[in-house]
Write a structure and sequence with these properties.
The complex is a heterodimer. Chain A is α+β, with helices and mostly antiparallel strands. Chain A has 5 helices and 4 strands; from the N terminus they run ααβββαααβ. In chain A, β1 and β2 form a beta hairpin. Chain A starts with a helix and ends with a strand. Chain B is of the alpha/beta class. In chain B, a hairpin with an 8-residue loop joins β13 and β14. In chain B, α2 packs antiparallel against α10. Helices cover about 40% and strands about 15% of the residues of chain B. Chains A and B meet through α1 of A and α12 and α14 of B. Chain A: This is SUF system NifU family Fe-S cluster assembly protein.
Chain lengths: ~150, ~400
């Protein structure tokens, strides 16, 4: 495999796409949003239970490519028990990582999310990686309408 | 095959002589848009270098030349689809505009509340949305001829759907997502028996086999230049004269009028009534060059090549473990939609791209087709006259690589 391909489809990405974590609707959720990438038809919903300022539980469901599923799965693990501000800061870092690459990004602070660094070499796939995050933001902001990557 | 040497054909297409990502380019996305032979590129350049001026206006030599080139292109299109009269050829931007034109002229004139527009389940969005919009404007109802698991139209149900309220049948000649070739001649016969006019979306047909609009008997036939090795921005609406003659204009502007006062406008005759504003002159010239190129190869030869390659590709893809071809119509054009295990088409496309192989992934602007087959998307390899068995072999190798990544 060429090196940029193996950067994109890292073991962790493939594993999360095949066995996504928190693939469920959170029972008694307080926040939810739907996301849609009209270009490829990827669809995703995020449900959360937010207590005070903290995301106590989060789940997602939907269909999409390996990148979008893995990104959503990793996201749910990363923002659980985080405050809104922390989740927002992660969004910013991940966005920079998938659009610009690892330079200038505090990769250590990203933990497992760092495996998404390969996406920046594939401009056509940035939206796949960021769909879940846009949906998370919409859910946190309490926007009922579906978000779109377009 | 006599008279058709694919290696020589490839030499006519400069874009194919390149490497991408360190590998020879394998272009399998011609159903999205085709590549252009040097003859088309040269014709456009020559037009701008020698003949460019506005048409139907000037008394000067350049305007004469450009008018001749533009009207000559109309005659070339007429010959290509065997229309009776060059006046039945309207230049538009593409298939999409051609269908919108019919919906907004014929449709607005003839449809009212409770009337019906009949389309099929395999249509491209370009042959759905203009009718949907027309229905919203007029209160008409959209009816859809269903499709079966092979991707063929359920003809036995079509008859019952042609009612006394049906004002038009709009159907694709070839499905862009499945490759299904529909029996447009038979459908036209049945529709006409009930007095229903027929529009055929021929965008995916004219590039693969000879089309004779008089033989089909349809009232309207739409296609795009860019899918048939011509430039983007130019397309054709053919309409039978007796259908076009009574229609109101589509857009207003220059060239579509005979006289204008502030009180009254007299509209021009067909086809100019439907060509408001300065048309895509160079586009028409390029389209005519594409047609001459196809004629030099012979559409029968092109059709034989495409069918031979389709058979080879179908067999080759079926040898890939876990691959399922979506769309198995008995009469099919050189389009292969497929699913590979449960790997998302986007991932398939990305990995193939790194091998220098261009395919289309997604819903192919035919979401109802995807909904019928209960898939969000497919991968689609589409073949054209410059594709070879080697291209198909490269695709198969690429798909094995995809399986390796996702094993």
């Amino acid at each position: 495999m060429s090196s940029d391909l193996s950067d994109l489809y890292q073991e962790v990405v493939l594993e999360h796409s095949k066995r996504p974590r928190n693939y469920r609707v959170v029972e008694g959720h307080s926040h939810e949003a739907a996301g849609h990438n009209p270009l490829c038809g990827d669809q995703l919903s995020v449900t959360m239970k937010v207590e005070g300022d903290v995301i106590r539980d989060i789940g997602f469901q939907g269909q999409g490519c390996a990148i979008s599923k893995a990104s959503a799965s990793l996201m749910t693990g990363a923002v659980k028990d985080k405050t809104r501000a922390e989740a927002e800061a992660l969004f910013e870092r991940v966005h920079k990582l998938v659009t610009e690459g690892p330079e200038g990004v505090d990769v250590d602070a990203l933990g497992k999310l760092a495996v998404l660094s390969g996406v920046s070499e594939f401009p056509a796939r940035v939206k796949c990686a960021s769909l879940a995050w846009h949906t998370l933001r919409a859910a946190l902001e309490g926007r009922g309408e579906a978000v779109s990557t377009e | 095959m006599s008279g058709f040497d694919v290696q020589r054909v490839r030499e006519d297409f400069p874009i194919l002589r390149q490497e991408v990502r360190g590998r020879p380019l394998v272009y399998l996305d011609s159903a999205a848009t085709s590549q252009k032979p040097q003859a088309v590129i040269d014709a456009i350049v020559r037009f701008y270098q020698h003949d460019n001026a506005n048409v139907h206006r000037g008394v000067h030599v350049l305007s004469e030349r450009s008018t001749e080139a533009y009207e000559g292109a109309r005659e070339t299109v007429r010959r290509f689809i065997n229309a009776r009269d060059a006046k039945e050829i309207i230049f538009v931007r593409g298939t999409t505009e051609a269908i919108n034109l019919v919906a907004q002229t014929y449709g607005r004139k003839h449809l009212g509340p409770g009337d019906e527009v009949l389309i099929t389940h395999i249509e491209h969005h370009a042959n759905i949305v203009p009718w949907r919009m027309l229905c919203e404007q007029t209160g008409a109802v959209l009816k859809v001829i269903p499709v079966d698991e092979r991707g063929e139209l359920k003809l036995d149900e079509a008859d019952a759907m042609m009612t006394e309220r049906t004002r038009i049948l709009a159907v694709s000649h070839v499905s862009n997502a499945l490759g299904t070739v529909t029996p447009v001649k038979e459908l036209t016969r049945r529709a006409h028996a009930k007095g229903i006019p027929v529009l055929v979306d021929g965008a995916q047909a004219v590039t693969h086999f000879p089309v004779d609009v008089q033989d089909i008997g349809c009232d309207f036939y739409a296609f795009s230049g860019h899918k048939m090795f011509g430039p983007t921005g130019i397309g054709v609406l053919y309409g039978r004269m007796e259908r076009l003659e009574p229609l109101p204009p589509y857009q207003g502007g220059g060239d579509m009028i005979l006289s204008v006062t502030m009180e009254k406008v007299t509209y021009n005759r067909v086809p100019h009534r439907f060509e408001a504003g300065t048309p895509d002159l160079a586009g028409a010239v390029g389209l005519a060059a594409a047609i001459r190129y196809l004629e030099s190869l012979g559409m029968a030869n092109v059709a034989a090549h495409d069918q031979e390659l389709l058979a080879y590709a179908t067999q080759a893809l079926e040898s890939v473990p876990g691959l399922r071809i979506v769309g198995q119509a008995r009469e099919k054009s050189a389009v292969l939609s497929f699913l590979l295990e449960d790997i998302h088409p986007h991932d398939v496309g990305t990995i193939l791209d790194r091998e220098g192989i261009c395919i289309r992934t997604g819903h192919h602007c035919a979401q109802p087709v995807m909904q019928f087959f209960k898939v969000p998307a497919t991968s689609r390899a589409s073949l054209a006259l410059y594709n070879t068995r080697e291209d198909v072999d490269a695709l198969v190798r690429g798909l094995h690589k995809v399986l390796e990544v996702f094993k």
